[in-house]
TrEMBL record:
Pfam families named among the record's database cross-references: DHDPS
Species of origin: Lacticaseibacillus paracasei subsp. paracasei Lpp123
Name by which UniProt lists this protein: Dihydrodipicolinate synthase
InterPro entries linked: Aldolase_TIM, DapA-like, Schiff_base-form_aldolases_AS
Keywords, ordered alphabetically: Lyase, Schiff base
Family of the protein in this entry: Belongs to the DapA family.
Entry GO terms, CC: cytosol
Enzyme Commission number(s) from the entry: 4.3.3.7
GO term, biological process aspect, one: small molecule metabolic process
Keyword Lyase: yes
EC category: lyase
Molecular function terms, GO-annotated: 4-hydroxy-tetrahydrodipicolinate synthase activity
Length: 182
């Protein structure tokens, strides 16, 4: 499938391996084969750290980039030699994620650890309900018109929005100090 998409594309593509959404998990060997195609320049890999590490090891000599799709692995992927994260949380906390990576590049582990500890509960909160409903609810509350999730996913109801706000540490979703506005 990805080979056919790459052949039809006019620009290089990034493949997605999100078994939780597709019910299919590409093996690292399959990813390594696809990585040899110059029109396939990377992967968003959702799954275990051992699988990420295996894919990075198998593709490190190719012009191929590996990103995690798991926000909680944003730091781990860099230490394994990957590019970073294609992030849900970055819709709201882009500055903190960028600063965590900059601190890692500087070797400032104290700042990295502090940012990671601040981000992890927020990252988890954005997956407390089926994604992308929580992120869309937060962005809509902040005035961004991102609409509702596509069916069969449903938007968060008022009670769920309040619970999400609590998990994010704010009295209501409109009180989030989203870094998209900074």
């Amino acid at each position: 499938h990805y080979t056919a998409v790459a052949a039809a594309a006019q620009k290089p593509i990034v493949i997605y391996n999100i078994p939780g959404r597709t019910g299919v998990d590409m093996l690292p060997a399959t990813v390594a084969t696809l990585a040899q195609n110059p029109m396939i320049q990377g992967i968003k890999q959702c799954g275990s750290l051992p699988a990420l590490s295996d894919i990075i090891d198998r593709t490190k000599h190719d012009a191929f980039n590996v990103w995690t799709g798991e926000d909680a692995q944003a730091l781990n992927i860099k230490t394994l030699g990957g590019m970073g994260v294609i992030s849900v949380a970055a819709h709201l906390y882009a500055h903190s994620i960028r600063e965590m990576y900059a601190a890692l590049d500087r070797g400032d582990i104290t700042t990295v650890a502090a940012l990671q500890r601040q981000l992890l509960p927020k990252m988890a909160a954005l997956f407390h309900f089926p994604s992308p409903a929580p992120t869309k609810a937060a962005l809509n509350a902040l005035g961004f018109q991102v609409g509702s999730p596509r069916l069969p996913l449903l938007p968060l109801n008022a009670s769920q929005q309040q619970e999400l706000a609590h998990l994010l540490g704010v009295p209501e979703l409109s009180a989030i100090e989203a870094e998209v506005l900074a």
